[in-house]
Design a protein that fits this description.
Sufe protein. Chain: A, 3-stranded antiparallel beta sheet, alpha+beta
Length: about 120
């Protein structure tokens, strides 16, 4: 009985935290990086909200994003969002459509790249 009550309390706490985290991801503002103002090199960024955690490393060379490596992606059901990296590299922009069915993970990946290049 005690175990059941503790499990229920833990579950409610986790759900509440995840809900707040997902609301945070839903309202994220993604800032377009000024690639001309970024020196060549590798930059790391992260973003976390609810069940989603993203860590990236972005390589910039000659005022362009050359590679984006997903170092960590705790994604719940959002693994499909990883396809957004190709869209970003092709467009050389963070102003791309999120991946349908993986909106929260898509936004977290975008914000992690934003954080890497704008901090």
């Amino acid at each position: 009985m005690i175990f059941s009550v503790l499990f229920l309390v833990f579950s409610l706490t986790m759900c509440s935290g995840w809900k707040e985290g997902l609301e945070k991801l839903d309202s994220l503002e993604i800032n377009e990086p000024d690639l001309e103002g970024i020196s060549d090199g590798s930059y790391r960024g992260s973003c976390e909200g609810g069940p989603v955690l993203v860590e990236v490393e972005v390589e910039v060379k000659d005022n362009a994003m050359k590679t984006i490596v997903l170092l960590k992606h705790r994604n719940g059901k959002g693994k499909d969002a990883e396809a957004i990296i190709d869209d970003i590299l092709q467009a050389q922009s963070l102003d791309v459509d999120v991946i349908s069915g993986a909106t929260y993970s898509s936004k977290a990946i975008l914000k992690a790249i934003d954080n890497a290049l704008n901090e």
